[in-house]
Amino acid sequence: MSNTLIIKSRKTGETFEFWMPSKGGYIRLESEGKEGVLGRQICKGGGFMGSTLEATPETFKNVCRNWYRAYMKEQNSYE
Hints:
Elements: E1 3-8, E2 15-20, E3 25-26, E4 28-29, E5 40-41, E6 54-55, H1 60-76
Antiparallel strand pairs: 1-2, 2-4, 3-6, 4-5
């Protein structure tokens, strides 16, 4: 069983579905509408390139939420 977390953005309406293996490891973001695809690995600073983020089952939700906040902050800087 893997760890999963779903965050729905109130601002954009996007759904972010994070998952990682049950024992911990790299965190991936599911690609909407692409079943069977492993998903994109999330990286430090709210992006998809650079230092890949990993977590334990205990830190998983916190790492995902921190990445989401950094991602949204980065998206808002382009507006």
